[in-house]
Amino acid sequence: QVQLVESGGGLVQPGGSLRLSCAASTSIFRFYIMGWYRQTPGKERELVASIRTDGDTNYADSVKGRFTISRDNAKNTVYLQMNSLKFEDTAVYYCNARSLRTSDWGQGAQVSVSS
């Protein structure tokens, strides 16, 4: 099981930026597909962005052009740079590490966009 610890959430005004980080406790981090998901009360958790082992990325349509996912395999860390934040980006953001057999989640980081 991979332990995932998110950081970098907080309160930001519309149009502002935040960067989330997710540190993974595994020496084979580079073999995991990493993803960021988000969830609001009463709604299902949704994929925000993912990055494969070869660096290929995928984004939800709602965040394309505003969010950027990246990974640093030397630091076992995945990042989510969020720019031009909107009210509707408010959610708990979860980091996910996925392999052929496993899927592990972090504890979540609250991102609140408010004026």
Brief synopsis:
The chain is mainly beta and 115 residues long. The chain has strands at 4-7, 10-12, 18-24, 33-39, 46-51, 57-59, 67-72, 77-82, 91-98, 103-105, 109-113. Strands 2, 4, 5, 6, 9, 10 and 11 form a 7-stranded mixed sheet that branches. A 4-stranded antiparallel sheet has the order 1-3-8-7, with no helix packed on it.
N/C terminus separation: 39 Å
Share of helical residues:
under 10%
Q: From the alpha carbons, calculate the radius of gyration and give it in angstroms.
A: 13 Å
List low-confidence stretches. Answer: none
Q: Summarize the main sheet.
A: 7 strands, mixed
Give average pLDDT, whole number.
Answer: 96
Note the beta-strand portion: over 45%
Shape: globular
Along the chain, the helix and strand elements come as EEEEEEEEEEE
- Output the number of helix runs: 0
Q: Could you say which structural class the secondary elements and strand pairing correspond to? A: mainly beta
User: Got a strand count?
Assistant: 11
